[in-house]
From TrEMBL:
PROSITE patterns: VOC (PS51819). Residues 10-131 form the VOC domain. Coiled coil: none annotated. SUPFAM superfamilies: Glyoxalase/Bleomycin resistance protein/Dihydroxybiphenyl dioxygenase. This is VOC family protein.
Length: 133
């Protein structure tokens, strides 16, 4: 590897991309559950969203319409689990449940975190928590 230069980007990020069976319903859910802001949207001619970028605080993720989507309950999901780090995990957890999420684990403390887990209506699991000091 002598004389080879490594390119190191000055800024990089990784954003999850979720395939769901109904992007319109997913966008509504994530906005209601997490207060997500829509940053970008690509629509079909009929106005249905195909792809959208959402952000919760400074953390962004993508949602894609995928009629072939299969996972938990045949409605998306799969092996990806999200972690959403927020200042008030109890409040965000309650908000997600009120928006239609299912509780997998109530918010509690362990391993230096206050954290709980929900499953969204599309089969994805979201850990919602904050580090304890």
């Amino acid at each position: 590897m002598a004389n080879q230069e490594r390119i190191i980007p000055s800024a990089a990020s990784i954003a999850p991309w979720l395939s769901v069976s109904s992007a319109a319903k997913a966008l509504e859910f994530y906005k209601a559950a997490f207060g997500a802001a829509e940053l970008y949207r690509l629509e079909e001619e009929e106005g249905r969203p195909l792809i959208a970028e959402l952000a919760v605080g400074g953390a962004s993720f993508w949602v894609q319409e995928d009629s072939e989507s299969r996972g938990a309950g045949g409605s998306g999901g799969g092996p990806v689990r999200m972690i959403l780090t927020v200042n008030d995990p109890d409040g965000m957890h309650r908000q997600a449940l009120m928006a239609g999420a299912n509780e997998i684990m109530p918010v509690g403390e362990g391993h230096g975190w206050r954290i709980g887990r929900i499953a969204d209506p599309f089969g994805y699991h979201w850990e919602i928590g904050c580090r304890l000091e």
